[in-house]
Amino acid sequence: MNFDQILSAIGGFGKYQKILYVWICLPQVLLAFHMMVSVFTGATPPHQCRERSTWNRTRSSMMAESMALNFSLVNTSCFSVDELLLLQGNRTQRVPCSHGWIYSQETFESTTVTEWDLVCNKAGLNSLGSSIYMLGLLVGSLIFGSMADRYGRRFVLLLSIALQTIFGVTVAFAPNFTVYVILRFIVGTTISGIIINAFVLGTEWTCTKRRMLAGITTDYAFGLGYMLLAGIAYLIRDWRKLQLAISAPGFLLFFYIWVLPQSARWLLANDRREEAIALLRKAALVNGRVLPPTVQVEKCEFATGGTQRHSAIDLVRTAQMRKRSFILFYIWFVNVLVYYGLSLGVSRLGTNVYFTQFVFGLIEIPARSVVLIFLPFSRRFSLCGFLAVGGLACLLMLAIPADHPKVLTGLAMAGKFGITASFATIYVYTAEIFPTVLRQTGIGVTSMFARVGGVLAPVINMLQNHSPATPLVIFGTCPLIGAALAMALPETAGRSLPDTVEDSLLTLFLALLDHSWPPCYSLIKKSQQKNVAGRTDPLRVDDPWVHPCLSVPQPCTKQN
Predict the structure, then answer these.
(1) Residue 350 burial class via C-beta count within 10 angstroms: exposed 0-12, middle 13-18, buried 19 and up
(2) 50 close to 114: Cβ distance less than 8 angstroms
(3) Is the CB of residue 508 less than 8 Å from the CB of residue 491?
(4) Which partner for 322 in 207, 285, 316, 469 could form a disulfide, CB atoms 3.0-4.6 Å apart?
(5) Rounded CA gap, 197 and 150, in Å?
(6) Structure pTM?
(7) Comparing C-alpha atoms, which of 472, 455, 362, 365 is closest to residue 415?
(8) What is the pLDDT of residue 557?
(9) Average predicted confidence (pLDDT) for the chain
């Protein structure tokens, strides 16, 4: 009896799993806060040079004057107005602002930009800070992915939540921009630890039929956090108070120490069968089931590969696994690049930033709901279609003039819809392609490549200042390339999770067999039914029914 059959016996998505997903979803709301808060805390409001005549004015008078100034005047944001007037008299040299800036407070009371004057020649530091934060996600995916395969999903998830809360609160008290960036980098590392471990922990406790629904449920929580952030930021317009408001609730998750379980699948894969059986008995009890008597510590069949340790090198050791890994690396990269490229560029669309942010969060709900409709039929074709929608929407934005912000916003939302659906699909798809012994490492490494896209997204958005079409060309063509590459991945819809690299390759073999030689595929499936106990055993590469199909490309014949 393999693990998926055990899950079905004890209830593959019963009360135990539903409670688990409540605990998994709560941190997802906080993740959305941290991922998108820079749209508000790092916003650059309209600004002008502060002249000598305003240098000694009080804060209240400066606020009144900021409301009266015309921030749309050309060339007054980085150069003195006095010097600009002298330019009319054969003066060619422009003098930068020497007394600071006056910022519009119509939308934001304070941001990191207004506090540390990250404008003009320092404007690049703002995008650099966002890129360093995304670099933290890259480092975190590498560190916490490997840690989870070695120490377990539960331990790393609890550690990540604790670190995120502590350093998230500390960010609100950063004395300067350098400290702020360092602290945000640490928060970024914890984001990856929570994302990949929460998702994998839920996936490994869920049966095949409910795996997709359960995975998308956590994405709904992220979308909820996305929308809530717009409301919180609307009410709290000081960046320090906003940072504190989104971070402090993490302390409420302290009780996770007592309620969050370990992954029974991971325990079995690491030859800790007594602990796994105890957890399975508890899950069966909560679900109102009884653990089958055939499931004993000494009899439970789980292909662990002995005590062999696996590493990221195993992702590229064989030709088939290498091809799958590289394609997944690229698709994850593209998803994050376009997702955050569109999300972080929301303030450039020319519409109300709070409303647009709310709608961008709201659109995640139907995008992920569509995934529930199409994904049961095919993981591969669904992924291709969603990537194509996201890419084409971005390319269509090139044909819309800048004086039509509502049309541009509508196309941006269509692109966000497609890439969000693709993002939800690739999480489920990747967990099904990589075997248990490499699943956490595989998702960690693919997430690392994804974070490279996150690092580049703010930089690519900066190119809009020099070439408005360049970011859209990149955000449009990259998903289309990914859609083409996805066709080379195996179909995993309705199939059990592979536990070993051998099982993973066998999944590909059966998928090809089903497509190319149906008689042989049918015969192999029938062989799984011929067990004296009357139950279905997992198909293995050393099964005598498999070898005829591995050796000759023709319909199978029974071997005597």
Answers:
(1) middle
(2) no
(3) no
(4) 316
(5) 12
(6) 0.76
(7) 472
(8) 42
(9) 79
Alpha carbon of residue 432 to chain centroid: 16
Interval 203-216 mean pLDDT: 77
- Residue appearing with tokens 């800036």: 101
Indicate whether 188 pLDDT > 50.
yes
pLDDT score, position 511: 55
Q: Which two tokens stand for residue 443?
A: 């998702």
3-class state of residue 535 by DSSP: coil
Would you call 316 exposed, middle or buried from its count of C-beta atoms within 10 A (0-12, 13-18, 19+)? middle
**CB–CB of 87/94 below 8 Å?**
yes
Q: Kindly state the tokens that stand for 87.
A: 């330019």
Question: Considering Cα of 76, then 77, then 79, then 81, what sign does the dihedral take?
Answer: positive
The DSSP 8-state label assigned to residue 349 in this structure reads: G
- DSSP labels, 161-213: HHHHHHHHHHHTT-SSHHHHHHHHHHHHHHHHHHHHHHHHHHHHTS-HHHHHH
Q: Give yes or no for residue 206 having a pLDDT over 50.
A: yes
CA 384 to chain CA mean position, Å: 18
**SS3 state of residue 476:** helix
Quick one: tokens of 284? 């069966």
Q: Where are the beta strands (DSSP E) in 240-372?
A: none
Q: Residue 424: name the closest of 118, 218, 152 by CA.
A: 218
Burial 263-293, CB ≥16 within 10 A → b, else e: bbbbbbbbeebeebbebbbebbebbebebee
Which amino acid appears at position 165 of this protein? T
The pLDDT of residue 373 is above 90 = no
